[in-house]
Amino acid sequence: MILRYIGCVIAISLLCIVSEARTDSIGTSHRRDTLKEARITSDRGVSVKTQTGHRRLNNLDFIYGNVVFSSPDIIKSLQNLPGVSAGTELMSGLYVHGGEGSDNLFLLDGVPMYQISHLGGLFSSFNTDIVSGLDFYKSGFPARYGGRMSSVVDVSTRDGDFEKFRGSFMIGLIDGRLQFEGPIIKGKTSFNIALRRSWMDAVLVPTIAYLNRNSKDGEKIGGTYAFHDLNASVAHKFSERDRISLKFYYGRDRLRLSRSTPDTFDYATVDGSGTDLAASGEDEINSDIAWGNMLASLNWSHKFSDNMHLNTIAYYSGSNADVHYNWKDWQFELTEHYDAVDETNRSKVSDISVKSDLDWKPDRTHYIRTGISYQHHIYDPSRNSTIDNDGSILNTVSGKRYDGDEFALYAEDEITLFRRLNINAGLRYVIFSVPGKFRHKLEPRVAINFKCSDNIDIKASYTHMNQFAHLISTNYLDIPTNCWLPSTAYIEPMHSKQVAAGIYSRLPMNFRLNIEAYYKTMDNLLEYSGANTLFPPLDSWEKSFHKGKGRAYGLETEVGWESQRLSLTAYYTLSWSERRFEGIWHDWYPHRHDNRHKLTLMGVWRITDRIDLYANWNYNSGGWMTVPTHIYNPGEVFDRIYTAPNNVNLPDYHRLDLGANFRKTTKRNNESIWNIGIYNAYCRKNVVFVAISEREDKSLYGEGRAIFPIIPSFSYTLKF
Questions:
Q1: Is 484 buried (19+), middle (13-18) or exposed (0-12) by CB count in 10 A?
Q2: Which residues, in sequence order, are CB contacts of 175 under 8 Å at separation 6+?
Q3: For the segment 248-297, what is each residue's pLDDT rounded down to a tens digit?
Q4: How far apart are CA 640 and CA 647, in angstroms?
Q5: Which residue of 212, 299, 441, 517 lies most exposed, with the fewest beta carbons within 10 A?
Q6: Are 129 and 160 in contact (CB under 8 A)?
Q7: Residues 264 and 279: beta-carbon distance below 8 Å
Q8: What 3-state class would DSSP assign to 510?
Q9: What is the pTM of this model?
Q10: What angle (nearest 5°) sits at the alpha carbon of residue 314, between those of residues 309 and 316?
């Protein structure tokens, strides 16, 4: 099969953005070195120093390594790390150690989030103006985390400043931001609020009006898109021992598309006069898609002593997607009428939960964590379809509500032995119940860290994870037509086992070298088996999916060097990711995101205190795609023959991103930053998908289609 590129089109995007550069400390205006704060660092905290596969990112406001629209983004920063596949270019995909993308646990201040992207993945749902940092686990999961089987992304937002007012403001071509924080009662109560909204709808309106005005065939198109989100928090300190905070998040996307086309039909008059008459109508297609999240939580922290504290949180997390479309097609041949379809698909999932965690350090050799949680899940997908065929109306309603209860209890202990050996041993017990089925699972976790010397550590871990929620989809894209559904009497929970081990060293002359290997198995995976359709079947979904298994293994390497002005990092991953579904294929075959090699080179050079430059180069082996290989009985309905799944390896992917920051202090002693960036600097035509076509002799050939060219951008940052 021949793959060839379709040409590269140059596009320019300009953006203004505001963020802030400050410490997280309360009551201080000291400004940190933003270059150092932007680095991705290894784990340092006492509670996580034993875990493999852990990274901690701090002060994400200043990660400029992802320069698309000059906007810092959490998910795209994680995509640079070894062991992580990004999936479709520029999207918010996160496929960790051979995972499916829906098996990542995203937490915002301890609350799970289901929808984590705006604009189809170009922006993540996490506003870095208010984020203080995150912990990312891809192996060695502590027992306190559960519910997903591939990774944990634990994002924390900061409380507002208790001593002074400050904030940031941004206005740009695509979106705008406003962040403001300060004391309500000085030293006691604070607030923090961050708003973000796009106004692509304002850009699209005149563009579409121009296109419609110049339409020669009378076709009219319509379209608008906008997203907005809000983060808000109020924190109050009753005393040095008691603290309470109320946090809220709301995010929403809405996309509307329409097209109308004149439809005419000429025919002779019935009386035979020879005069032609013309009938006319208008064919229409309309779609309206809205999706998003709402999270609310109340958190109480109580400090019994310097070595023991209790954290209790009650929360609500809801995600929903509404997809409505209708079309009308005029018919003239027999009688003048129209056929019409009107359909609405809704996917809703809600969690109501309370959990409590106790941290206790009885002595220098133990750090004990234990906790309990209860979640009530509500899965409520539905479909309402109306078909009008010449006045004959058929209405179909389908859907089913599932209520699930999930109870979890865990305990873990970080044990220090002989000053060189650390062991994190934990056990998590989970109960999941839906009407007609009761399940309970034990999830053992253990991680070991042996310090060979002050500069060399050896780590190993073994973990079990279970996932009771399934993202049901008929395609490979994370779009609002997918819906979350629970494990039932027929559908087993997904399960993974993973072992990981590595050596982590700090070498002379400011070098570091980390090497880590992993092996992971996955069971009870689902793969759609029905006919081509945009929406998953709701009444028969349990029997419309094949059940299979997966395995992933690989080797990850990190090499880094840094000085006061220069930081260089290289990540390399050698990995395999495979699937086996007996109902689809009799043997193992590559997963669609089985990228054999992945290499990321990152550099930051702080030329002066006011100017710094950065560069990222990303390379990975191409993903996989299932395409037909030849035609049998040309002209028949089902005439294309397929061999093994994912039988074509796409071309390799690589691109270079460049950027620079220019800092300045304004007359009012505020800090401003100009950022200039170039995404895909040498305009690499990376294949996103393959279009299959037939030649005249009925043979098949494929064309690799590239979408994203070089994208220059700039932003202006102001902190006040």
A1: buried
A2: 15, 123, 196, 197, 198, 199, 227
A3: 999 999 988 888 887 666 655 555 555 555 666 677 888 899 999 999 99
A4: 14
A5: 212
A6: no
A7: yes
A8: coil
A9: 0.88
A10: 150
